[in-house]
Each structure stands twice: as C-alpha cells, then as structure tokens.
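Would you mind writing out the residues of a protein together with its fold in token form for me to study?
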Amino acid sequence: MAETTTEPERLVNAYVDVWNERNYARIPDLVSESFAMYDPAAPGGEVHGRDGLAEFIRGVVAGFPDFHVTVVDVVSDDGLVMYEGEISMTHEGEFDGIPPTGRTVEIREMSKFLVADDEVQEHRAYFDQQEIFEQLGLVDDGD
C-alpha cells in the first residue's frame, strides 16, 4: 500500500527546503505571523515570527554555509508532524560569538511541528548541543 503525504507533511517539507535552499521568500507562505520556534541554538532558545525565523536561518548559514537537513523519517497526525533528521554543517563563519573552527558537524535531531490553517505555527527542535560543541572541538569529548 502506497503512503500518501498529508498537507501538513508537505508544508513541513517545504519549510525544511527553506533551510536547505535558503529560500527566505517562501517563509510568509509557510509559517504563521505568530510562528514560534524553540531551538537550543537560538538566542534565548526561541525564535518568534517570520522575520525572526529568517534572521535565525541567516545567522546559522553565516556560521555554517553548507548547513543541510536530511529528513530520515516522518510521522504525522492531523496538525502534528514529527521527523527524525540528520544535520550536517561545516563551521566556516562566526556563530553565536564563536570564531570558525573549520570542523564539520553531523548530528541526529528530532523536530516537532504544529500546523494549522495551512501554516506552520510552531517548530520545536531537539538535539544534543553538547555533541555539536564536542565535534567543533570546543569542549573535551571525554575520551
């Protein structure tokens, strides 16, 4: 039996494409004006609104120009979409006051999205930020 992609899943896929393709012009078509993102890497752990999202993505890409999310698995039910993903990125620019290390980072992450009225309302990202710091050589990895 073939699986069908739901409209919320299509919206989330397009949202991920904004990150991967740097297509900031699509943000108003995909996220609500009251959009909220909760991400450990965001300033204060939160991003609000369309402009806030664009600014955050630009900051991430300035530090990690090759930032890319690969969606590995997706589950959805009505307006809830969750995916497991892989993030790869190379630290070639300053990010959050940290000078470039030139190191590549590869991590797994989970993201949860609330979708309503044909817009992404909320994005919550879950990943081990300590693992990123270790791969960047910023902390002792315990070995």
